[in-house]
Amino acid sequence: MGHREDLLEGAKRCLLEKGFVRTTARDIVKESGTNLASIGYHYGSKDALLTQAFVELVQEWGEKSGHHPEQEDTPGGSVERFHSVWARMLDSFEEYRPVWAASMEVVTQGERVPELRGLMARAQTEGRAGLTAMLLGLDEETLDERTVKSVGGFYQALLNGLMVQWLFDPASASTADDLTEGLRRVIEAAGTARRDGAVSP
Questions:
Q1: Where would one find the signal peptide in this protein (predicted)?
Q2: In whole angstroms, what separates CA 19 from the centre of its chain?
């Protein structure tokens, strides 16, 4: 690997061990066996490097806990698929706890380092597309922008909320069963409202 890849891998390890705020440029240099000048040359700044490292850690989590067609026997878009995917993601939360803890720090850094917002915004859109494809059983390339924004945004809001619940208190955080029951009740309530004459937005 070259310095660029070494820096990225070193930054990932620092994020998992020390988090976003506590990691210094010297920590990354020591962990990667590179030098301070390499950070600016390849990534522009320490914060940009850490943000890229965070995005890749989340992508690695998604690949590990995400949709595997050969293992999935529930129809895309079904309540059964919904339960299956969330159960699988929740099972991985303990292993990736440092990633979720770092995510809380990354969010707050957006106010301090505005240029990071663009990178996180792009990563957020990619995350929405990945969640939508996983839960609906579709290829990401077939998804239109509106589906990614609406359906993907809904799933992403669930994921982010669940992450916060789990970080604060895993014992009381919603389970896959809780989420699935909640979804069923929301669908049922919406159907009842429509039958009673409510106007859809």
A1: none
A2: 16
Q: Where are the domains of the chain?
A: 47-189
- Long-range contact set of residues 37-42: C-beta below 8 Å, sequence gap at least 24: 38/3, 38/4, 38/7, 39/7, 41/3, 42/3, 42/4, 42/7
Residue 169 pLDDT exceeds 50: yes
Which residues have C-beta within 8 Å of that of residue 54, sequence separation ≥ 6?
15, 20, 99, 102, 103, 106
Q: What is the pTM of this model?
A: 0.82
Structure tokens, 156: 């992403």
Provide CATH code, domain 47-189: 1.10.357
Cβ neighbours around 5 below 10 Å, total: 11
Contacts of 7 (CB under 8 A, 6+ apart): 28, 32, 34, 38, 39, 42, 43, 49
Q: Are 130 and 72 in contact (CB under 8 A)?
A: no
**What residue spans of the chain are helical by DSSP H?**
3-22, 25-32, 36-43, 46-65, 79-91, 97-112, 115-136, 145-147, 153-168, 176-195
| 31 vs 87: CA distance, rounded Å | 34
Q: What per-residue confidence (pLDDT) applies to 120?
A: 79
Q: For 91-149, what is each residue's pLDDT tens digit?
A: 988 888 888 888 888 888 777 777 677 777 888 888 899 999 999 989 999 999 999 99
Percent of the chain exceeding pLDDT 70 equals: 93
